[in-house]
Amino acid sequence: MLKISFGLLMLLLSGSSLAASLEHALMVNLGYGPQPSGHVSQRNFTSGVDLEFYRFQRSPRQWLSLGLSYSYLASDTEQHRSLHALSLYPQLTLLGEQYQQWQPWFFVRALGPTYLSEKQLGSRQQAKHFAFQAQVGIGATHLASQWQVALSYKHFSNANLDSPNDGFDIPLVFNFGKRF
């Protein structure tokens, strides 16, 4: 899997005749919410930072990007209260119609290879320290200042490659940052 991710990274970084840039975006995030579909009541929390380091514009309405994400996850349970996650993520961003000084967008991250410092968060378990990050959300960029805000749903699991695969979810994540 690491070879595939590294190959994808090299392909994207090798350049293209379409618009590619090394613009960056730095986002901090805070999130909270109940773990869905759990047999034990559990609420999860997150804080973290995302650094988008590469963006490839596929059309005037969409771009693909690569980034690194650090997430601290915690639960309100008595045991296995926290872990750290480090991810390399691909992201597809679809742009909406510009409204005054704001550019709305929708984003999807899928199959971002992730290292988990622990295999358990509260009552939820993963088979290995390796998992994937998935995230979906909506946001907007203020065009004059390049400040960004977004709301999203974040999920970590091993995509059923091994068992157990309970998944760790944070239903509501607030993201705030800037493009530079």
Please give a handful of descriptors for the protein shown.
180 residues, mainly beta, Porin, 8-stranded antiparallel barrel, two-stranded antiparallel sheet, 1 helix, 11 strands, 62% strand, elongated, disordered N terminus
Total number of distinct structural domains: 1
Helix content: under 10%
What's the quaternary structure here? single chain
CATH third-level topology: Porin
Describe this protein's structure.
- This is Acyloxyacyl hydrolase.
- Residues 1-19 form the signal peptide.
- InterPro entries: Lipid-A_deacylase-rel (IPR018550).
- It holds the Pfam family PagL.
- Keywords: Signal.
- By secondary structure, this protein is mainly beta.
- It has a single domain, classed as Porin, CATH 2.40.160.20.
- Helix content is 7%, strand content 62%.
- It has one helix and eleven strands.
- The strands form two sheets. An eight-stranded antiparallel barrel has the order 2-3-4-5-6-9-10-11. Strands 7-8 form a two-stranded antiparallel sheet.
- It is elongated.
- The two termini are 31 Å apart.
- Mean pLDDT is 90; it is low at 1-18.
